[in-house]
Amino acid sequence: MAASIANARRERQALPVWENTMMKKSTSWLLPAALLAVPASAQQVGPGLTYDEAIRAAVIEQPGVQAGELQLQARQDAAEAADELPDPQLRAGIMNLPVTGPDFLDPTMMTQLLVGIEQRIPNRGKLRARTRMADAEIGLAQAQLDQTKYMARIASGRAWISLTYAQRSLVVADEALNELRQLVPVAYAAVSSGSARPAETLEIRRALLEVEDAITALEANREAAQALLVRYVAVENPVAAGIMPPIEVDPEQLRDTLGFNPQIVLANAAIQQARAEVGLAEAEKRPDFGVNVSYGIRERRFGDLFSVMGTVTLPLFGGRRQEPRIRAAEADAASASAVREDRLRELQAQFGADLAAWRSAYQQWKRAKDELLPLARDRVELETASFAAGRADLLDVIEAIKAQAFLELEILEREEAAVEAASKLRLTYTEQVQ
Question: pTM for this structure?
Answer without folding.
Answer: 0.72
